[in-house]
Amino acid sequence: MPKSKSSPVAKIPPRRKREPLTRSQMMARIRSKNTKPEVLTRSAVQALGLRFRNHVVDLPGKPDLANKSRKWAIFVHGCFWHSHTGCRLASSPKSNTSYWGEKLARNQARDAEKIAALEAQGYRVLVVWECDVRNGERLKRALQAFFAPSEVREFVKPPYA
């Protein structure tokens, strides 16, 4: 029987059997790589027949998906962490508002800076939002609009001999 992957973070018992988590424990469980929206976006791009690398370290902003030869990059942003305007998932925190306001503003400024740096290098950049990934049709439309028909390869089975 194959061995299952274990998570680096211990599984949390049900609320009735444990003390409430501290803020630090809650924040430690928030992942920055391989999140569900990112994995779903990778699957959708792969289904289009495109090749890419994950978390390309030597590009500005370390894009979640990138293809250096075709010069495109995709960032998958969480609506809360990157302050998606007009989105119900991008709520503003009610406590410690001065800290969170500054932090989320810094995130937006950093995002704009990294996207501009990529565009200066000749890259086409797409930002995919968490709410778009949740709605699979919106994700599909965004990816199809971003990739020109010439870039998406149609895979056709060769005829049997």
TrEMBL record:
<comment type="similarity">
    <text>Belongs to the vsr family.</text>
</comment>
<dbReference type="GO" id="GO:0004519">
    <property type="term" value="F:endonuclease activity"/>
</dbReference>
<dbReference type="InterPro" id="IPR004603">
    <property type="entry name" value="DNA_mismatch_endonuc_vsr"/>
</dbReference>
<keyword id="KW-0234">DNA repair</keyword>
<keyword id="KW-0255">Endonuclease</keyword>
<keyword id="KW-0540">Nuclease</keyword>
<dbReference type="GO" id="GO:0006298">
    <property type="term" value="P:mismatch repair"/>
</dbReference>
<keyword id="KW-0227">DNA damage</keyword>
<comment type="function">
    <text>May nick specific sequences that contain T:G mispairs resulting from m5C-deamination.</text>
</comment>
<protein>
    <recommendedName>
        <fullName>Very short patch repair endonuclease</fullName>
        <ecNumber>3.1.-.-</ecNumber>
    </recommendedName>
</protein>
<dbReference type="GO" id="GO:0016787">
    <property type="term" value="F:hydrolase activity"/>
</dbReference>
<dbReference type="InterPro" id="IPR011335">
    <property type="entry name" value="Restrct_endonuc-II-like"/>
</dbReference>
<dbReference type="Pfam" id="PF03852">
    <property type="entry name" value="Vsr"/>
</dbReference>
<keyword id="KW-0378">Hydrolase</keyword>
<feature type="region of interest" description="Disordered">
    <location>
        <begin position="1"/>
        <end position="21"/>
    </location>
</feature>
